[in-house]
Amino acid sequence: MIRTRFAPSPTGVLHIGSVRTALFCWLYARRHGGQFILRIEDTDRERSTQASVDAILDGMAWLGLRPDEGPFYQTQRFDRYREVIEQWLAEGKAYRCYCTREELEQMRAEAMARGGKPRYDGRYRNGGEPRPGVEPVIRFKNPLDGQVVVDDAVRGTVVFDNAELDDLIIARSDGTPTYNFTVVVDDADMGITHVIRGDDHLNNTPRQINMLQALDAGVPRYAHLPMINGSDGTKLSKRHGAINVLDYREMGFLPEALLNYLVRLGWSHGDQEIFSLEEMIALFDLDEVNAAASSFNFEKLKWVNHQHVMAAEPARLAPLLAEQLRRQGLDPNDGPPLEYTVGALKERGQTLQEIAERGHCYYEEFEAYDEKSAHKHLRTEAAEALRALGEALAAVPDWTEQDTEAAVAGVAERLGLKMGKVAQPLRVALVGQAVSPGIGTTLVLVGRARALTRIERALNYIAAMG
Ligand code: GLU
Fold it and tell me: What gap in Å lies between CA 181 and CA 228, rounded to an integer?
């Protein structure tokens, strides 16, 4: 049984790069009928916040990355960590170290002076007298020689010399366990078979493997994912687009579109760009994960989102459009049915936010006419057609696309004008500018009452300009 875990530290927003990690963990478990575990690594009490935990849970729920187990919280597992420490002390796999800060500083300085890496010299490794007044830290007895071979699913074989690794502190002098140690206890206890995480953790891996062996636990398969950079090749940051995943919800992205975009950062399947969730699950594998860094492209993400918007059911998009309209200060009930609006406008914006922006004039009065459009179409010659349109449209029995469009065509024919000569002034009268969906659709979007008032408004405008 394959078991993966996503193990965020709740110290900030849920970063888009972390979501890619979570997605790969989730997909790999789904793909192989395994289990996906969520573990909140909150042992750093100064930096961890409840707001961040909430943001992680909220973000994961929005994306549909549901854990099969968890969330587990490391702060609720301190007894277990203490138990392992006691056991290791008893077995001689760990020891108390009474070095003072000054001694460590000195070791560091000496190592640097020799041109080596700063490392602990192991002076309490084989015992040593407790020092009055010094609360000891606990260190893990790392093997002194030999190598740790990491057979990484992405990076290939990476070899570390034990001689390079010093004896890691696993509990601070106040007794709290440290990061690399808690990860190991949890990965072992939770039966994790595949550790998929950012490659900033690759250097922790040999120490973690040594500790897993001390626990007599199996060593999971590791997959260290390459960085996601910004489009300019530098570390992904706010300058490149939002990094907080919940900002994407606010901007009107669909969760499946964000996942689709993220799955392609570091993974590919031929040159296919658009994947449904089902396809991702069926196709994803660690073998095709690329070891090179990928780069984040906000425009491409928007394009991917648009493909998913076009494919989504209007009934699903309607409440999302309502939310965006509300956010933009409009009343979504004061206008056409939202499903209709979304169907009519979804080609015109890549996100629900953009689609809502295109829809303002159907939910509130628009302010001024677009100057160029008014200048071109709201002229004295158009007044007759607009008056005739007002009468014809007032009399249309069913306010449908077909019937309203037929009424417009009828007016054009009666006045001996081309359809455009009638429809364009009407369009500017209805929405304030010369672009909108087809004239029947626009009329249905505006609604009869507003349409008739706006035709009056245009006639008054023409008269005033006259
Ligand atoms: N808590 C770590 C982080 O947020 C992840 C640890 C792991 O995946 O092993 O970077």
Answer: 27
Q: What is the DSSP letter of 217?
A: P
The tokens for 376 are 């071109």
Q: Which phi-psi region, left, alpha or beta, contains residue 127 (left: φ > 0; alpha: ψ -120 to 50)? A: left
Mean pLDDT by 10 residues, the chain (466 residues): 98 96 98 98 94 98 98 98 98 96 88 84 90 94 97 97 95 95 98 97 98 97 95 87 94 98 96 97 95 94 98 97 98 98 97 98 97 97 97 98 98 96 98 97 98 98 92
Residue of 201, 202, 222 to mutate, ligand 1, most atoms within 8 A of C-beta: 201
Distance (angstroms) between ligand 1 centre and the Cα of 275 equals 27
For this structure, is 372 an active site residue? no
Tell me which of 93, 117, 235, 238 is the catalytic residue: 238
Contact assessment for residue 54 and residue 39, using Cβ atoms and an 8 Å cutoff:
no
List the structure tokens of 441.
């659709």
Considering just the CA atoms, what is the radius of gyration of the chain in Å?
32
Cβ of 183 closer than 6 Å to ligand 1, yes or no, is yes
